[in-house]
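can u do me a favor
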């Protein structure tokens, strides 16, 4: 009887440990890999929040209509390790970026790469972290 109770308690303990893993979302639950975009715009806001940072960018289309893109990034810690500081991008900065549109709202996307408009070949952030050095990741 004691053995069965011990196995039951251990099994329940493992189930409770797995709950945080289930809570985290994957890319495919929110974003569409087929909706890759390359756009330019102006930073309106940057949120240094966990578990993911967000960058908001006003993008004007050819018809003059402005859409505010809400782009999710990695965690603030990951971005800081890539060499991006809190003053690397500020509201009003002109940028070029690549990302993936959302499944439901296209302008809520996942940021893949961002650079200032005057230096598009020097990205401030490349999704993938330090191992993305071959993709133009800035070295410290």
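np, heres the sequence
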């Amino acid at each position: 009887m004691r053995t069965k109770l011990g196995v039951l308690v251990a099994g329940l303990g493992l189930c409770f440990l797995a709950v945080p893993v289930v809570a985290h979302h994957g890319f495919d639950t929110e974003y569409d890999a087929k909706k890759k975009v390359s756009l330019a715009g102006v930073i309106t806001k940057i949120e240094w929040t966990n578990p993911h940072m967000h960058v908001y960018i006003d993008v004007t289309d050819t018809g003059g209509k402005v859409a505010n893109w809400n782009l999710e990034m990695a965690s603030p810690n990951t971005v800081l390790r890539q060499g991006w500081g809190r003053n690397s991008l500020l509201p009003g900065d002109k940028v070029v970026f690549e990302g993936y549109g959302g499944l439901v709202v296209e302008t809520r996307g996942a940021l893949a790469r961002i650079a200032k408009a005057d230096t598009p070949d020097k990205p401030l952030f490349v999704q993938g972290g330090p191992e993305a050095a071959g993709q133009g990741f800035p070295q410290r």
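The chain has three helices and six strands. hope that helps!!
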